[in-house]
Design goal:
With 370 residues, the chain is mostly helical. The chain is 69% helix and 0% strand. Helix 3 packs parallel to helix 5, helix 4 runs antiparallel to helix 5 and helix 13 crosses helix 14.
Length: 370
């Protein structure tokens, strides 16, 4: 157990992997603000003109699957601990619903407006934080199920989404657009539809049972996770090579940029399987490296202890700096994006350390939720 956690047990590899996720997210967002390529491409249909631009954009593709799966893992853990303390299911469910509603509220108040530096209030669309919040509310309804039923539900959602995605609707009709883009499709109202990401959150809850409880040794955690990841990669590649169900973008040849760049908004089945596997590989890597390089892993632990704070603050700071002033907005490329990333890391690290200390001492509802 980490010696910094007076109030609750922490799993270092979970903190560290969450830290990797938010760090990769910062890479993506500094590119969004400083990279001129975003003047040329559509985020819903990205085409990359070089391996450098491809890597800069593609690595952060791990973020949303990682966020949803680790959220599912820790939701399962929270439920189990409350159950062991004798807390009623109704009470635990209400706790998760409150957290989910808080995330949705945070999205439509703070996050949406922070992208533009708070120049105007932008409550009328959803995003990844709201997706996590809605998924938490839905997960509260089934988190008590046996892990086999959870696994089956997650798989069914992922398999059904490509079929549901074919539903046609009128984007000019507000209610049709809101309902479809909240749950199935991606567009101006929401790039993160709930159903496919909720499927990954459920699979994260299943993995939580094994990572945090059933697989007692690190060796079991690593080997079993890698075997599951290998199976998922094989299924993903088979789907991609089939060029049909589970794919959205065509590709030119195996191993090309286009082979790996299937759709993220909403995610194709290929992308979900592919990054499900790489979340497992990433978690396994942190479990292994934590034993040999604990001092280096602390780099990831610091933002990983307060991922929501890191997410909300770094966007706000760049939004205020860049969007309000227009300073260097989308004027650079890969190098400039990485320089911006390095500067923001230097800013965010001491802020994360400070907020973690505040959070550990505070009983304030909002601070505890962040």
């Amino acid at each position: 157990m980490n010696n910094l956690n007076a109030k609750k047990q922490r799993f270092l590899f979970i903190d560290q992997f969450r830290g990797l996720i938010v760090i990769l997210m910062l890479v993506d967002h500094t590119s969004y603000y400083f990279n001129a390529i975003w003047k040329q491409i559509d985020p819903l249909d990205p085409l990359f003109d070089s391996w450098g631009q491809f890597v800069l954009r593609y690595l952060p593709y791990l973020c949303a699957p990682g966020f949803l799966m680790i959220f599912g893992t820790m939701t399962w853990w929270s439920f189990q601990r409350r159950k062991e303390k004798g807390e009623a299911l109704r009470s635990t469910r209400w706790y998760l619903v409150k957290r989910g509603l808080f995330l949705v509220l945070l999205q439509v108040t703070w996050v949406n407006s922070s992208w533009g530096g708070f120049r105007e209030f932008q409550p009328w669309h959803l995003g990844i934080i709201a997706c996590i919040g809605i998924s938490m509310i839905l997960l509260s309804l089934i988190i008590h199920w046996n892990w086999r039923f959870l696994l089956l539900t997650g798989i069914v959602l992922l398999l059904a989404h490509p079929l549901l995605y074919q539903i046609s609707y009128d984007q000019e009709n507000v209610w049709q657009r809101v309902i479809m883009q909240t749950f199935i499709d991606a567009g101006s109202f929401n790039k993160y539809p709930v159903l496919p990401w909720f499927g990954l959150a459920i699979l994260g809850a299943v993995m939580g049972r094994f990572w945090l409880e059933a697989w007692q040794s690190d060796h079991k955690k690593i080997i079993n996770s890698l075997l599951i990841a290998l199976l998922a990669i094989m299924l993903a590649v088979a789907l991609r090579l089939g060029r049909g169900y589970g794919n959205i973008f065509p590709f030119s040849s195996f191993g090309s940029l286009s082979f790996f760049t299937d759709q993220k908004y909403p995610p194709s089945l290929f992308m979900n399987l592919w990054f499900f596997a790489f979340v497992l590989i990433g978690v396994s890597g942190f479990i292994a490296l934590g034993k040999y390089l604990p001092w280096f892993m602390e780099i990831f632990s610091i933002p990983g202890r307060v991922p929501l704070f890191f997410y909300g603050v770094h966007i706000a700071l760049m939004g205020i700096l860049v969007k309000r002033t227009g300073w260097f907005y989308r004027e650079g490329a890969v190098t400039e994006s990485l320089i911006g990333f390095a500067i923001m890391m230097l800013v965010m690290y001491p802020l994360c350390i400070w907020f973690y200390r505040v959070k550990m001492k505070s009983n304030n509802f909002i601070i505890r939720m962040i």
